[in-house]
Predict the 3D structure of the following.
Amino acid sequence: MGVVVTVEGRYSLSFTSGDLLQNEANIAVPLFVSEGDWKLVRAKLEEENLLQTRTLASSKRRSREITERLAMLSEEELELLASGTSAERVHLLWVAACRRYQLIGEFAEEVLRERFLTMANTLEYADFDTFLRGKALWHTEIDELTELTMRKLRSNLFRMMVESGLLSDKGRISPTLLSNRLAILLGERRPSDVRFFPARPMAESW
């Protein structure tokens, strides 16, 4: 499934890669530091197969995905992504996915975080299905998804949450302790992007 171009009022539903793309980010960020342009970074990743994919189509897909996600981060956030701790890096990559895909961001805020705040400490596939059915009332593009694609999007989202340290393999929500410097960066946005994490409201005042 290729990238779906976002239009006003529609979700982009192309997060079929199923992970945070940590290895890809480790390659793409230094390239951006030297090139200063995500289009140039993407071209270099594709032309030189720097992501070491088996096919050209796969190289194009992964290169496009990582550059589109990383383009969501500010210069300061990219610097932290390059030099931060492992926890900071996965948290930033989760933020990049939430910003790139409105559906992921809304699920993180409206379901993941809300369940944490109400002390419902588990998250199941059924919670995503209920969330998606509710969104389908306003987003007809959801109804256009095949059952196979919907299952893939669901499993990929849960895999990202596990990789981000927000969810255990057993579906238990893991409270997130953001570093002070990351919380400050996320808090500079309005609304604060701390909302993408299972964290207490007090974190937003950091």
In short: Residues 172 and 197 are 14 Å apart (CA to CA). Confidence is low (pLDDT under 50) at residues 1-8, 202-206.
